[in-house]
Design goal:
With about 325 residues, this protein is an alpha/beta fold. It is about 30% helix and about 25% strand. The strands form three sheets. Strands 3, 5, 6, 7, 8, 15 and 16 form a seven-stranded mixed β-sheet that branches. The chain has a six-stranded parallel β-sheet with strand order 11-10-9-12-13-14, with helices on both faces. A three-stranded antiparallel β-sheet has the order 2-1-4, with no helix packed on it. It holds the Pfam family ADH_zinc_N. This is Quinone oxidoreductase family protein. It comes from Kiloniella antarctica.
């Protein structure tokens, strides 16, 4: 028997159950992993609460992990037992000691990257990659507003945006998080709890606004974010930490400067193995070059997933967080 975290109904962290599961043998095109580190991400909360409902319950949870291949199913020819691999696009169920997963969902981990780093950066790092290189291709000299700048995606994005030659304005919710954002290279930091971020952005940009806003907060910041954009600016809403964004009329975008609005997800940009490999390779290269430093800020036992979710939702975590299987 192996241990995994599952939930039988939607709700708060307390619905997560750490229990015995049967893992079985990998079928054609699949592999069995002994997982060494598991990524904790806010999308896990959306799955647990039912904001992003599952096809059936009970369900596993988690989209990201690193591990060692311990068994290979028929038809898998490019991977071997003992290979270190990681994944960040699911399928759901990464909160587990062992699991079976399609072989085309994993990426070989370079020797220069540790398992803990890989597990903490695949989803967040590939999310950053598609946001700043493909959803809106950031250019040298662009001014960027990035909400939740001390979070997992934000911590990676600030560093990468610096490497691209952008000026980064970041929002945070505390002085502690402001220090983190500053250390990562954020040029201008706004504490949204004590400052009006719209007014501050206008001051910083001399009233012109920013080229692009990246907003994972959702409901609480969405309309203000639109007011931070320059004419023909791009609004990228990619999360719902404060709740889903309310419906808006398209004419609002016209009235605020002919804005572009998009709501992407990792699945749209890394839906094929080729796309995922290209994204992960760009991420690994950025980390290896020193442009991005991946630091695991919090670590919990897999059996303590309930506490990890409580801390995540209470905004007590910063940067990357992992869960460690006990085996």
């Amino acid at each position: 028997m192996s241990k995994a975290v599952q939930f039988y109904n939607y709700g708060g962290p307390e619905v997560l159950k750490y229990e015995n599961v049967e893992v079985g043998t990998p079928a054609k095109g699949k592999i069995r992993l002994k997982q060494t580190a598991i990524g904790l991400n806010f999308i896990d909360v959306y799955h647990r609460t039912g904001l992003y409902p599952q096809a059936t319950l009970p369900s596993g949870i988690g989209l990201e992990a690193a591990g060692i291949i311990e068994e290979i199913g028929p038809g898998v020819t490019d991977l071997h037992i003992g290979d270190r691999v990681a994944y960040g696009t699911g399928p759901i169920g990464s909160y587990a000691e062992n699991r079976i997963i399609p072989a085309d969902k994993v990426i070989l981990i370079p020797e220069r990257i540790s398992d803990n780093q890989a597990a903490s950066m695949m989803l967040q790092g590939m999310t950053t990659e598609y946001l700043i290189r493909r959803t809106y291709c950031v250019q040298p000299g662009d001014i960027v507003l990035f909400h939740a700048a001390a979070g997992g995606v934000g911590s990676i994005a600030i560093q990468w945006l610096n490497a691209l030659g952008a000026t980064v304005i970041g929002t945070v919710g505390s002085q502690e998080k402001a220090e983190i954002a500053k250390a990562k290279g954020c040029h201008h930091i706004i504490n949204y709890k004590t400052e009006d971020f719209v007014e501050r952005v206008k001051d910083i940009t001399n009233g012109k606004g920013v080229n692009v806003v990246y907003d994972s907060v959702g409901k609480d910041t969405f309309m203000g974010s639109l007011d931070c954009l320059k004419v023909r600016g791009t609004m990228v809403t990619f999360g719902n930490a404060s709740g889903p964004v309310p419906a808006i009329e398209p004419l609002i975008l016209n009235g605020k400067g002919g804005l572009y609005l998009t709501r992407p997800s990792l699945a749209h940009y890394c839906g094929t193995h080729a796309d995922m490999l290209a994204s992960a390779t760009a991420l690994f290269d950025a980390v290896s070059s020193g442009a991005i430093k991946i630091e695991v800020k919090q670590s919990y036992s897999l059996s303590d997933a309930v506490t990890a979710h409580k801390d995540l939702e209470a905004r007590k975590t910063t940067g990357s967080t992992i869960l460690i299987p006990e085996h």
